[in-house]
Every structure is written in structure tokens, then in C-alpha cells.
Amino acid sequence: MRLYPTRRAIGLAAFGAPVALAVALATPQLWGAAAAWILMTAGLMLADALLAARPSGLGLKLVTPQVVGLSRPGEASVEASFKGVAPREIEVAVGVNARLAAIPIRQALKLNAGWGRADVALVAQRRGEGRLEKVWARWRGPLGLVWLQRTEAPDRIVAITPDVERVKEQALRLFSRDALFGLKAQMETGEGGDFHALRDFQTGMDPRAIDWKQSGRHAKLVAREFRTERNHHVILAIDTGRLMSAPTAVGPRVDQSINAALLLAFAALKIGDRVGLFAFDAKPGVASGVVAGAPAFPLIQRLAAGIEYSTEETNFTLGLTTLAGRLDRRALVVIFTDFADPTSAELMIENVGRLMRTHLVLFVAFRDEELEALVDAEPAEPDDVSRAVIAAGLLRQREIVIGRLQRLGARLVEARGDDLGMSLLNAYLDAKRRELI
After folding, report:
1. Alpha-carbon distance 336 to 326, whole Å?
2. How many angstroms separate the CA atoms of 73 and 158, rounded?
3. Residue 363 sits in which domain range?
4. pLDDT at position 163 over 80
5. Tens digit of pLDDT for each residue in 337-350?
6. E strand intervals along 19-142
């Protein structure tokens, strides 16, 4: 329990000072009136504390979610209940660590029959473990001169994960379409499919599916029917180094990469492919074997939530060599990374080229919106022209690196963070249709 004066008590004590000074100047023998005023104020504060509701009679119950997603506020609540005498109103506050923000920080709560509940929005700042470290409750005495405060330390942990709700929303929109790889009893024709059977050609079918030899043999048009290929290995390799973990206007690129990777993992597992997760910075980090089936998605989600931010430079040689050593068959390797200039990207290009000798590489690059904005901005002063020229030079350097990767045979996905998930998914489905994996 903690006691301290309210503003009313401080104002009351301060009000007595000039009165006592005036009395002492007018009648010096009554100088003791100042001490009497202070004693009176202290006595009123003591009486207020004794008449107030007891901190021991207060029960605080903290209700929190187990998981909070980035960009999706979670709802927590503080329930307060008094036994015996209760104030009409209390103030409550929740203390959190740096990975969470509690909104509002402090709020007044009116009690009904000694009970009340305050709702608090928990906004995730970064992935990891969010902690609700303390809960404070304070209330005034009936005279309004003393604050009584009760503090509890629940040390409640909330897991901060990628924005899985957004992934689920995108996936639901995606799988509501009939044409996504046999969710209905339909067979996909064209490149990227396994031959399944022959059937009579019907109006509306693709003429390219006609098997002319079999049609001649049966004296009628016969078409081939295909099934989508399954059991491909899809490896999601996420760079968590300094450039990827640096903050941007819409959050670190590593978080945007994880959201896009989860969407691709959900779709690939649903289709029937096998998915693995790999993260690296100066050394390999999270590494999983390939898993299959939609029930395996929560495992990928938990592993992605455990990917930490890093301030170290990325070691592409160690990271991609380690990844290549884990792969025992041809796979689609999706690399999420960033680079600053052609010199720093040299080792990345060399190791990506080595990986492409065996595997199909899908290289994910973020469009640099800040540089594009500097180039497109209308100059208002001479410094704006200089910034635009420098930004244009940096963009040309990025294009040089991307061009070298494309000439090596890597497939490129370049998009803004908001569009990255769907752009990546389209590239994955296109690679399957073209039978590139």
C-alpha cells in the first residue's frame, strides 16, 4: 500500500502559508498559527486515509489474450472489486514492456456496488514476448486529500506473433476462388500438371488438351486430363540482418517478409506441397524440416514468431551454404532479403548463383518507396535536386543487382510491403504452372 497527498491537500497546505505569514506579521506572538495550520492539514489527511477504503479489501484481476498479432490490437481488461467500503471511482493503469503499448495508459473507472472493469487495448510494437509487468490502482479518500494506491505484479506474458489474422483473411479470399488447384473435383490442365486420364472432348474444354493420336484411334475427339503436381518442397529463407530489421514507415521489412511467407506457406500446405522455414543473419537461426498438410501451419507460425530482430550484417555465404546443405532434393527456395549497393550485394549474388545450380530461386525484393518518393518529388529548393539525383543513382544501382540476378536465372518478385503477399503467391503459382520446380 502507498499513501500520498492529492492536489487538494497540497493546495490546502499552500493556502495556509500566506495566511499564517500575514497573521505573524500583524501579531508576532501568534507565529505558532503556521504550525497549527500544518498540523490541522496533516490531521485531515490522516482522517481521510482512515475513512477511505482499505487497499487490503481490493481485488484486482487481470485478463489478457495469449497471443497478439502485429497491427492487430488485443483486448485486455482489469477487474476491480472491493470488499466492504468502496470508493465511487478509482484509477487503473497497466505497465508493459517495450514490445507492447497499453492504450489508454491510465483511465478512471466508476464502480457499481464495489465492482468495475476497465478495458485496455494492447498494441504490439515488435514481435517477441510482451509482458504485462504491473497493475496499479489508486483512489481518493472521502475528503479528497489522500491517494491510496495498490500495486500488483502479475508478470503476464503475451506472445506477439506476425499478423496471422491478415494472412487468414487473404487466404480465405484466395481459396474462395474455384480455380485454385482442385479444391473442387476439377483438374487443372496445361503446363505444370501430371497426366491423369483421357476423357471425351466437350465444348468449352481447352483445344490444346486434345490428344490427336488417341482421337484418331477412337474416331472421336479425346482430351487429356491433368492433375496438379504436389509434394514439391518450398523453402522460405528469411534474412533477419541489419537492413531487414531496420525500422521503416510501415514497420521492419522482416515483419513484412514473415507475413508474406506465412501466406505462401498456408497456400502451399493447402495445395499439397511441403514447406520449410529458414532464417539467418550473421549465422543461421531458425531452421525447420519440411512439413506437409494444413495442420502443420501452426508449427510454421510458431517458428516464424520466434524469429528475432538483428543488428548484425548478414553472412550470405554461411547462411545460404548451410541452407543448401540441408536440402536433399530440388526445391523452390524463396529468399527474402535486402541490399544497399552492388558492392555489398556481391557475395549475395555469388551464393544465390551457386544455389540456383540445383534449385529454383524466387528472389523477393522490396521496392524502396522512400527513394522513389525523393525522385518523384517536385523540387522546392536546391537541396531537393541533390537528393533526387542521389536517390536516382541508388535506384539504378538496385536495378543493376536485380538485373544480374535475373540473368543468372532467378525469378524476381519486387513489390511494396502491402502487396508483397499476393505478388509472391502469384509468382509461386506461376512457377508451378510452368513446371519449373
Report:
1. 18
2. 12
3. 164-177+231-433
4. no
5. 988 777 778 888 98
6. 58-63, 67-69, 74-82, 89-96, 100-103, 106-110, 115-124, 128-140
Cell of 406: 535475373
Tracing cell 489527511 back to the chain, one arrives at 45
Report how far residue 150's alpha carbon sits from residue 94's, in angstroms, rounded to the nearest whole number: 12
Number of domains into which the chain is organized: 3
User: Domain for residue 255, yes or no?
Assistant: yes
Q: For residue 396, what pLDDT is reported?
A: 87
Cell 486430363 sits at which residue?
A: 225
Closest CA to 40 of 147, 145, 148: 145
> Would you give the end-to-end CA distance of the chain in angstroms?
66
Q: How far apart are CA 284 and CA 130, in angstroms?
A: 25
* pLDDT of amino acid 146: 92
Listed residue (93, 87, 264, 83) closest to 162, CA to CA: 264
**In this predicted model, what pLDDT tens digit does every residue of 271-314 receive, in sequence order?**
889 999 999 998 998 888 899 988 898 888 888 888 888 889 89
What is the rounded distance in angstroms from the CA atom of residue 57 to the CA atom of residue 85?
8
Residue entry with cell 490502482 = 137
**Cβ atoms of residues 249 and 241 within 8 Å:** no
Which positions ≥6 away from 121 have C-beta within 8 Å? Answer: 73, 74, 75, 76, 102, 103
Let me know whether 208 and 286 are in one domain: no
Q: What CA–CA distance (Å, rounded) separates 319 from 351?
A: 9
Q: Is beta strand 193-200 parallel, antiparallel or unpaired with respect to 411-415?
A: unpaired
SS3 82: strand
Helix, strand, coil fractions of the chain, as percent rounded to 5: 40, 30, 30
Exposed e or buried b per residue across 313-330, where buried means at least 16 C-beta atoms within 10 angstroms of its C-beta: ebbbeebbeebbeebeee
Fill in the amino acid letter for 386. Answer: S
207 within domain boundaries:
yes
SS3 assignment, position 84: coil
CA distance 430 to 390: 36
Residue 315 inside a domain? The answer is yes
